[in-house]
Amino acid sequence: MQKNVKPCYYADYLQLDKLLDAQHPESTKYGAEAHDETLFIIVHQAYELWFKQVLHEIHAILPVLSQDPVNEDQLSTVNLRIERIHRIQEVLVDQIDILETMTPLDFLDFRDYLIPASGFQSIQFKEIEILLGLKSEFRINFDKKSFYNRLNEKDRNYLLNLEEQPSLFDAVEHWLERMPFLEFGDFKFWQMYKDAVEDMLKHDEQVIKDADYLTDAEKTFQLNDLSNTRSNFDALFDKDKYQELKQQGRFRLSQEATLSALFINLYREQPMLNSPFRLLQGLIDIDEKFTTWRYRHTTMVHRMLGTKIGTGGSSGHDYLKQTTQNNRFFRDLFNLTTFLIPRSSLPELPPEVIKAVNFHL
Questions:
Q1: Is 44 annotated as a binding residue?
Q2: Which of 62, 122, 164, 262 is the most core-located residue (most Cβ within 10 A)?
Q3: At the topology level of CATH, where does 24-360 sit?
Q4: For the whole model, what pTM was predicted?
Q5: Is the CB of residue 329 less than 8 Å from the CB of residue 134?
Q6: Which residue ranges make up each domain of the chain?
Q7: Is residue 279 within 8 Å of 79, Cβ to Cβ?
Q8: 111 is in an annotated binding site
Q9: 193-220 tens-digit pLDDT
């Protein structure tokens, strides 16, 4: 049944008069139009439209995960919105294929007309990064101050204010810290898990020592590696050691949040933990897909510019390569696999915990 009073016309609804009249190549101001500049504009405008949709999804997710407590019924919707972000990210990567139909010489026809404009000035992308948790203190050095110097006052103040607001990383951390199943009545999971880890490490140590096919040097190497693994586990259980590594930047999540995320990963097959597990995996996928996009972008810039500096004053390809490796959101969630142990070694959950994680709480 029609609900609108006034007929809706396609071109008016999409405001195509504005959208299709928004491509104005800079090269025409100085002579003949550089043919590929229109492609360059349209691809970047498309990026900004997709960034707007990603922000729309993040702004819907953040309030849900900021609740105390988080409504379990809403996690499925959160996971669907995260899945939509994944699909958009795949489109972002695919658009690079279109942009790479432009040759380096085609790009040079108009590149120098764009100085000092650059991707630095994509406020929406920086907003995405900040909302996901990549604030100035976690950026590479060039980004910490130089980036803000390239913005006008309005945009700079907007993003600086946003840095003071809770991010999705913060919301997820606080949500994880409230995990109710780590200590449940007489059940203390982490003591049981610690004992299981110790048994596993002792077994691995004995296997190495008894391995006749290894030379003494190879045994020493593997035993040293096992010692490092033991140190990682020790830090996981020791609050002071964990805090020391956190101050060194080895961890960002609190110890409580890390332990809860690990519990979810270890027992993800339990009904109440399935949606939280999917959420954590979804956040890892967001991080991985943006890393992939940065890598493809870095490779494209290298292909187009070689080692020339970027129009925004960065070192171009070298700068982008650093951001690919270091500007990450949820590295802690990737590192959880360090602490996984075989299913056969997992402590068995007592009946009262099994009952709780099966929605009988």
A1: yes
A2: 262
A3: Methane Monooxygenase Hydroxylase; Chain G, domain 1 (1.20.58)
A4: 0.88
A5: yes
A6: 24-360
A7: yes
A8: yes
A9: 898 999 989 999 999 999 989 998 999 9
